[in-house]
């Protein structure tokens, strides 16, 4: 699908009641049943957004997350999907649009970090291929699906509003579209935030597959941010270092946690909430002029080698 960039000036977003509200926005969070993704889903909901979580196979956790989101007063949805395929990503975005009425925000948190320390010259083809599929292919497919939905909704909103104004009619208040608030009918733009890693910036010995996949994500962000800027869709990445999640259980075992913390300038390991806060901050309307950025959220670790 190809849509020509809009020729009209960028619309000014309406002033929200509070600059820290996402009420009326619709978000999709991949990997949303655990770790960083779950923390992001909760914080988006606390800010007022309706949230759909994508996951692979954790059905019990997905049901619990839906209940948690509903208890926070927003609409919650979920879908099991293999986003390493085009069909899986398309189905997840389609489900989000059906359940929430649209998609304004994509936070892509799903991914893998193979725990075994393996130098590249000993790495098996299967591990390399799996890491690329889960971390690179999934990034491309889910971003493509979400951006297509955002662009199409923007075209419908601006086209419908333009046609009505040309005929002397006033666009209906509350006209819903990507980025449209619940009562304003004004286009606010889309937000895409990908979870990268410090490994994508400085490499990671014995995990060259992971580092390469996150480096690819960083380059992808810088490329797609320019492509989607004319549609008022921002694209950014967060680069965490070590985070206290299930993924890091093995390296944290024994005295590993203390050794890791000692190598971080701030002297502590991040929690999922530490990563979720800057992610959600990039989703607010006030962040509309930030795009193509890699935001380091690693306690200064990327600066200390």
Give an overview in words.
With 305 residues, the protein is α/β, with parallel strands linked by helices. It has one domain (26-303): 3-Layer(aba) Sandwich (Rossmann fold), CATH 3.40.50. It has helices at residues 35-46, 59-71, 86-100, 125-166, 199-202, 208-228, 249-252, 256-262, 272-281, and strands at 26-30, 50-55, 76-80, 105-108, 190-195, 233-240, 294-297. It has a 7-stranded parallel sheet with strand order 3-2-1-4-5-6-7, sandwiched between helices. The longest helix is centred in the middle third of the chain and has 42 residues, at 125-166. The radius of gyration is 20 Å and the shape is globular. The N and C termini lie far apart (43 Å). The model is unreliable at 169-185 (pLDDT under 50).
Instruction: Supply Rg.
Output: 20 Å
The number of strands is 7
The chain-level structural class is alpha/beta
Through-space gap between termini? 43 Å
How big a fraction of the residues is strand? 5-15%
Q: Can you give the helix content as a percent range?
A: 40-55%
Q: Major sheet: size, sense and barrel closure?
A: 7 strands, parallel
Q: In CATH, what is the homologous superfamily?
A: NAD(P)-binding Rossmann-like Domain
| CATH topology group | Rossmann fold
Instruction: Tell the overall outline.
Output: globular
Order of strands in the sheet with the most strands?
3-2-1-4-5-6-7
User: pLDDT average, as an integer?
Assistant: 87
In the CATH scheme, the class would be Alpha Beta
Number of helices: 9
Assembly type of the chains comes to: single chain
Number of domains: 1
């Amino acid at each position: 699908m190809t849509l020509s960039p809009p020729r009209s000036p960028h619309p000014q977003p309406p002033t929200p009641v509070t600059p820290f509200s996402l009420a009326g926005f619709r978000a999709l969070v991949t990997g949303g049943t655990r770790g960083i993704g779950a923390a992001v889903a909760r914080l988006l909901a606390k800010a007022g957004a309706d949230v759909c979580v994508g996951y692979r196979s954790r059905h019990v956790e997905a049901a619990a997350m839906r209940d948690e989101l509903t208890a926070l007063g927003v609409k919650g949805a979920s879908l099991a999907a293999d986003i390493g395929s085009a069909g899986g990503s398309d189905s997840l975005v389609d489900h989000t649009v059906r359940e929430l009425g649209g998609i304004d925000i994509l936070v892509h948190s799903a991914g893998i970090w193979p725990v075994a320390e393996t130098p590249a010259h000993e790495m098996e083809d299967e591990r390399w291929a799996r890491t690329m599929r889960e971390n690179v292919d999934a990034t491309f497919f889910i971003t493509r699906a979400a951006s297509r939905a955002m662009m199409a909704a923007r075209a419908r909103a601006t086209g419908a509003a333009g046609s009505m104004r040309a005929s002397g009619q006033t666009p209906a208040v509350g006209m819903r579209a990507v980025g449209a608030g619940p009562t304003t009918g004004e286009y606010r733009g889309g937000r895409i935030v990908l979870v990268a890693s410090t490994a994508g910036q400085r490499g990671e010995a014995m995990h060259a597959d992971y580092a390469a996949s996150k480096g690819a994500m960083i380059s992808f962000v810088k490329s797609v941010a320019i492509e989607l800027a004319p549609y008022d869709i921002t694209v950014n990445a967060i680069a965490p270092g070590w985070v206290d999640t299930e993924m890091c259980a093995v390296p944290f075992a024994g005295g590993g946690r203390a050794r890791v913390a000692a190598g971080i300038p701030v002297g502590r390991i991040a929690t999922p909430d530490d990563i979720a806060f800057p992610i959600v901050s990039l989703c607010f309307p006030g962040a509309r002029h930030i795009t193509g950025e890699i935001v380091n959220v690693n306690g200064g670790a990327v600066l200390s080698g």
